[in-house]
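Service request form, structural biology core

Requester: graduate student, group of Dr. S.
Request type: structure prediction, single chain
Budget code: on file
Notes: please return the result as structure tokens.

Sequence provided:
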Amino acid sequence: MKENYIAKRLEANGIVQGVGFRPFVYQLANRYGIKGEIANTSAGVSLHIEGTSNDIDLFCRDLTEKCPPLAKITDMSIRSVPLGGYKDFSIAKSKGQQFRSTLISPDVAVCDDCLSELFNPDDRRFQYPFINCTNCGPRYTIIDDIPYDRLNTSMKHFTMCEMCQSEYDNPSNRRFHAQPNACKVCGPHVTLYDARKNVIEAVDPVKGTTVLLKKGYSVAIKGLGGFHLAVDAENGDAVCRLRERKHREEKPFAVMSYSIGRVEEYADVSSEEKTLLTSFQRPIVLLKKREPNQLSKDVAPRNRYFGVMLPYTPLHYLLLQHDFLALVMTSGNCIEEPIAIDNDEAFERLSDIADYFLMHNRDIYLRSDDSVERIAAGSKRYIRRSRGYVPIPVFLKQEVPQLLACGAELKNTICLTKGKNAFLSQHIGDLENLETYSFFKMTIEHMERILDIDPVAVACDFHPDYLSTHYAQTLSGIPIIQVQHHHAHIVSCMAENQIDGPVIGLSFDGTGYGTDGCIWGGEILIAETGNFSRAAALSYIPMPGAAAAIREPWRMMLSYLYDAYGEAFIDLNIPSVHEISVKKRNVIVDMILKKINSPLTSSLGRFFDGVAALLGIRSRVSFEGQAAIELEMLAEDMSSDVYDYEWAEEDMLRVLTAPIIKGIVRDVGKGIPSAVISSKFHMTLIRLFSDLCWVLREKTGLDRVVMSGGVFQNSLLLDGLKTSLEKNRFQVFTHSQVPANDGGIALGQALAAAAMMQ
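Core staff response, request fulfilled:
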């Protein structure tokens, strides 16, 4: 038989380390009588296989078709090599290489096998909070370098006991080379503290924590990617205290429940939402509230939705088994700061918020907030793409150079490209303080190292005052390519859908620096990857007070009313106008007339703010987008009624806001309910932008529409506009792999910069 043997060398790249791929290959080789070896490399895995031609064909088929659930082969080369005379199949030590291109698995939820052991009194890991195997547990947040071996993770500080080592070394064991493998004898452990760093002596710190939560205390709990701040979600006093201490006035809190059954006691769960909730990524999913429900009204005030997740670590399961309907599990940070990951840092930053701390001694190397998703317009939509998904790349249509894209100012993420892979980072946050900026820089350095990427150019936003732009300007020796904000939005959507231009791009958000120095945000572009032209936009309106107009929508209300009526708006019978003092109204009018600190904006986000204030929904906001969100929440059944709308043909199509504002004012004067007005406003925008796309198709011949920008987090606008355009025979492309908001903009910057370089 030996004379019929052949030998092959396989090089496989993708997510093939730390996901049970090598033991899978080992068992597969034994099934087909294959001899040889497999080893981790800095590029993925390398296999030398020897056997009959038929057995090798069957082996290669199963290698790609039956690999473990967390594994993903993106590239595989096969070449003939001389026989090596192997007598069996073995798993060799990792091999370093000059170039590194392996993909790293994200952190994933504890698997069913480990859960079964966690609650089995006869298992040696019974109720051990760090149980894991090759199919689950921490990955990205504990890795410092590749190859993904224990010595390159934060588990290097824990020497495995004899039993754990035996599992780790056994290719037929589920924990073979599971780098975080441990047990209560040799692994990490949890400790309960008070806010003064005093240890709370308890036989079971987890059970002690549940007692404190039941009593209404708040506890900072260390998880996979950082700390959560937890309280009992049914305890209104505890929820309010947490809001007060965290200075988070009204932004909804996320909650965590033990099971789908518990979730269904307070929220509606569709089959698609259930699939998201139970996926191994375990994101926060936006679910429609059931009314009435038992959760505190202060968990998600003035919102129709709860942000809900299921447990994803053994520690979460151990906490939630103690008869909680839900726990608030919000990011462990102070307002506008990154989530805390280090124990000492948590005491320093969170001791004024949390009464107690449940900590463990396994280091987190890189913070990673929970991902947030929803089902809208028939598909999964990211609001925040982070834990569970990063660093899985977005796969591109064509290879691009190694680039760094620095993202935007708000909801910042960065992007690194390599070949056909675009690696979008976890959520970094709003670059408005030193702590977040330091996290931003650390993320860039960490990802460049573990992905072995040395950028040949850096992309950034046009805005001269963004910290991300400033960072790009500090880099010496490589070119800087500035990409206009709304162009980057459209290109990000084109990139994930693997399409080239030209396209009609609807780029709608709150703020973006335009090429004319004004603030854009209601743009229709004719866009290609490397360039764009502005085909239509909302007419410019002053933003009295600039950034203050974002925090105080009543300013935008007055600006839109002044644009529509002049100073006569003061005489209108609008309650929300008369709630503003005469002095303040006069100051705003004076600022507009004299152009004092009143930059011009075409932002659709600001238009939503102005309408929300006009309806008396929200005159001030405590978090970004609050007024627009509450305007969307207010809308009821969508009708076919619309307000008058029109545009002017100038250098481009300029959409006039005055006719819409006047229609709303008339309805307010008639006492039409705000819910009806909100629905009518949404429908007006749907009809308006559908008509504009029709006009532009007649002019350009383009029938592909790309929709991006934070306004498309509004499910009414997204679904309505997509449906309307498709009825009019447009091809519509939307986001399903990265957020429509600024969390996805770095992807567009990178691809636009690559096209500009060419």
